[in-house]
Amino acid sequence: MPQALVASPPLEPLQIAREFVDKDGWPEMKEHLCCEAEQQAKTQTLGQQIPARLQRSCQLLQQGASTAVVAVELRDSLSRNDFYLHFAKEDDAWKLQAIRSLSMTQLGPPMLKLLTTMPPAEVAQYNQKHPDADHDFTVGNLKLWIGADADIIDHFTHHQTDFQKVLRLVQTRKYLSADTTAANEAAANTDPEVRTLLRKLYISRVTQQDTDCSSCIEFIIGGRIDNTVGLLYQPKAADVPKMNPDRLIVVRPIAKGWYLYKTTSVNNSR
Known about the structure:
By secondary structure, this protein is α+β, with helices and mostly antiparallel strands. The protein has helices at residues 13-21, 35-40, 46-49, 108-116, 120-129, 135-145, 149-158, 160-172, 182-190, 192-200, 266-269; strands spanning 55-63, 67-75, 80-90, 93-100, 205-207, 217-224, 227-233, 248-255, 258-263. A hairpin with a 2-residue loop joins strand 3 (80-90) and strand 4. The model has no long low-confidence stretch (mean pLDDT 92).
């Protein structure tokens, strides 16, 4: 058979992602887009829409029979940002369906700048006014909230022993279970030992309400409205909640049973 008549195999999600974030553009882009991604990238790829100086790396997080998710990190000497490309399979061909990132973080940087430039006297006043979330905790928490995935993963890795301590306390004291009530959750977050460790780890609270996974334990870093970032514990891989572009935009494994996750709401993600 002549070489020209041999059809090229369909592109895999990771291949499409790499082409889509490449700085040189992609003439075949339209063939590999569907749904809202067609509106988000009408004439230029994501790679063409961002500064050329940014380094881009792609990592396949999940690929099943009909859906896939690729994480994209953009970085230079000053910043690192993460996007998540959600794919759907149409007629045996993968199509980029949606582009997601954590929304509503724009207040974070100015708040962080304000706090980190406070003179010592103002820090002391701040601590008096905010005994439940002092200056050190708020700065550390903000850095994680607006930080790159790599920074959050690094924070977890360096403090994994303390995360495990919190987990054991919550489990042995039976605060969170499949039928957890608001009172149980409040008791967990006001337990002096749990609270002390959460403050040390820059974690806002523990909950089971953020990912609709009643068997997971979630360590909320922060966020606004439906746009949150945190760490999730679920030892059974089969029970880890599935990613989707309308709510749970990323679930990223970081250690045995532990995951980084982010949520969004459809209204704020487009």
